[in-house]
Design brief:
single chain; Rossmann fold; alpha/beta
Length: 224
């Protein structure tokens, strides 16, 4: 797939499934049989929140990891409890670029972020907004707010250091292979942080940063 084609797909929130990382897509789509939807821009604690929810609710059907606003708006239309995960754009986009190792441009990554949160914005007041810090520090709190907002009864437990270590290990497990660099892992690492710091200065000068930050502020302000 050429860079222009990849960039075009990324700008419309479709890059990540079509690159082949997201297999078994039908099971991740929102349907009337879905119990909960957990969606956000990539690198926004999607996997961490999913594994936490699945740990405490192993038998339920979860829509997740399509990184498209259609998941969110469809969940709302079908009455499926939904949490939208969101991370500040500089951090999220830097992390995406590190993971994708130069396969998409800065502009495509920004446009994808803006596409997701602007198109899902119509559903904002009917979902649980889960900022990155909360989703990573207290995913149980996200589940508790899903219960409160949607009158659901999803299971959760208070977070412990053991649970946090278990979830981080689970995030890393599907991606870490000997033939891939350490930056391809979903889990935090010193190398990834170093690479992200190198990217942030460049990304901070991008003309789309202001629009992306404004969208982020709109989502997290007075969040339900």
């Amino acid at each position: 797939m050429s860079h222009p084609v990849r960039d075009g797909l990324a700008a419309h929130g479709l890059l990540f499934p079509l690159l082949g990382r997201k297999r078994r897509l039908p099971r991740r789509l929102v349907t009337r049989a879905t119990d909960v939807c957990l969606e956000g821009y990539p690198r926004s604690a999607n996997s961490y929140t999913f594994f936490a929810f699945r740990r405490w609710n192993p038998g339920l059907r979860v829509a997740h990891h399509l990184h498209t606003p259609l998941q969110v708006t469809r969940a709302v239309r079908l009455g499926v409890p939904c949490a939208v995960l969101i991370r500040p754009p500089l951090d999220a986009i830097a992390s995406v670029l590190v993971m994708d190792r130069g396969r998409i441009s800065d502009t495509a990554a920004y446009r994808s972020y803006i596409h997701f949160y602007s198109h899902a914005l119509r559903a904002r007041d009917r979902v649980v907004v889960a900022p990155f810090a909360e989703a990573t520090e207290d995913p149980a709190g996200v589940i508790a707010r899903l219960n409160s907002t949607f009158k659901a009864s999803f299971a959760w437990e208070p977070m412990t250091s053991e649970t946090r270590e278990e979830l981080l290990a689970r995030v890393e497990r599907p991606i870490r292979r000997p033939d891939l660099p350490a930056t391809s892992s979903g889990a935090p690492s010193a190398e990834k942080e170093r690479r992200k710091e190198e990217l942030r200065e460049r990304l901070a000068a991008h003309p789309l940063l202001t629009e992306a930050e404004s969208l982020h502020a709109t989502w997290v302000r007075g969040r339900p």
